[in-house]
Amino acid sequence: MTANPQISREQVLAALRDVQDPELHKSIVELDMVKDIQIRDGVVSVEALLTIGGCPLRDTIQSSIEEQIRQLPGVRGVQVQLGVMTQEQRQTLITKLRGGEVSPMHRSSFLTADSPTRIIVVASGKGGVGKSTVTVNLAVALRRLGHRVGIIDADVYGFSIPRMLGLTGQPTMVDQMIIPLEKDGIRVMSIGFLLPNEGEAVIWRGPMLHKTLTTFIGEVHWGDDLEYLLIDLPPGTGDVSITIAQTLPQAPMVIVTTPQLAAVNVAQRAARMAEKVNMEVLGIIENMSWFQASPADPPVYIFGRGGGLRLAELLGVPLLGEIPLDPAIREGSDTGEPIVTSHPDSPAGRVFRQVAARLVERLPMKVG
Ligand SMILES: Nc1ncnc2c1ncn2[C@@H]1O[C@H](COP(=O)(O)OP(=O)(O)OP(=O)(O)O)[C@@H](O)[C@H]1O
Ligand SMILES: [Mg+2]
User: Fold this and answer.
1) Distance of CA 235 from the midpoint of ligand 2 (Å)
2) Whose Cα sits closest to atom 26 in ligand 1?
3) Is ligand 1 within 6 A of the CB of residue 128?
4) pTM across the whole model
5) How far apart are CA 166 and CA 125, in angstroms?
């Protein structure tokens, strides 16, 4: 008979380092969620503390713990008991997650110069040109390239990101800290998650708008591993755009426009605002560029031609891509499946992926 190898507390703790809290994106060991470990006759008992009672992901946490420990040699059984943190333990955790910072405007790491997070603001002059469509599809494309991605739906009055991603529900709150919702690994915050139903109207004036946006930027737990944060702006150069520019000075911007030459002047206003507030325009994305009923048919230029290129030339920035009209894009935005998810190899899907790759080239990850 061979004796069971001795399992040590350190081994168990090391194994638990690989278990992440699915919402906070950090190891449960690092988060001080492991309260107790007992080992008796090869049976490992773990007591872990959840941040809140009724945590929606408690089953996931429990099974990840069990799975990790079972892999250790000599383990004959695993028992997991889940408790809930006290108010004080939660406060310590929040302070830790915020990197010990006290100033509310510096709680999110990407507000500091050494943050690894790259921000991309998606703007337009006119409404309805496809900013939100571009935002969700670029997010999926960046995710497919292996990046950790977040979206802020800054269109507070006209929010559409939740529907476009098929994302409903309310964000988990850990005391005052909001945990973004997640779809296919994309972290998302929208006012839509905080309203009782989608048809509800937001009727706020400036200060409330400002407060909501700075909360989304500074007090949502985006995670310090976030690589790209896309911000979907409302059309034009109103209050929201000003708040974003003030809160995230120097954030790079892409401008979405249609091919219509008459729209170039309107689109230019977004660029002029960017210039005034020191935001860099990374490039232009032309949307609704043409329609082709089938690959054999000639393209039809429903909204004219050349607007994207014209704007790019005027601003001295690259035209990052031209996206065709495709009914599947509209359907996808109603059903919550962006075209890059449902048809990544369609002509439009490919352009979105190329644009994402070009953005990564322009905004490479910061090393270290
Ligand atoms: N290339 C495309 N092909 C087909 N439909 C498209 C395309 N781009 C956008 N759409 C559709 O056009 C509509 C407007 O797009 P979207 O909501 O993305 O524009 P927006 O610029 O964000 O609008 P708003 O200014 O209201 O925020 C949506 O129904 C969307 O599905
Ligand atoms: Mg929109």
Assistant:
1) 7
2) 128
3) yes
4) 0.85
5) 26
Q: What is the pLDDT of residues 244-295, one digit of tens each?
A: 888 887 789 999 999 999 889 888 888 888 888 778 999 999 999 999 999 8
pLDDT at 332 over 50: yes
Sorted by where each starts, the structural domains of the chain and their CATH numbers stand as 9-97 (3.30.300.130), 104-362 (3.40.50.300)
70-74's contacts with Cβ under 8 Å and 24+ in sequence apart are 71/15, 72/7, 72/11, 72/12, 72/15, 72/44, 73/5, 73/7, 74/4, 74/5, 74/6, 74/7, 74/42
Least confident of 20-24, 129-133, 324-328: 20-24
The identity of residue 329, as a single letter, is: I
**Can you tell me which residue has the tokens 């010990």?**
100
Is the Cβ–Cβ distance between 134 and 285 less than 8 Å?
Answer: yes
DSSP one-letter string for 5-30:
PPP-HHHHHHHHTTPEETTTTEETTT
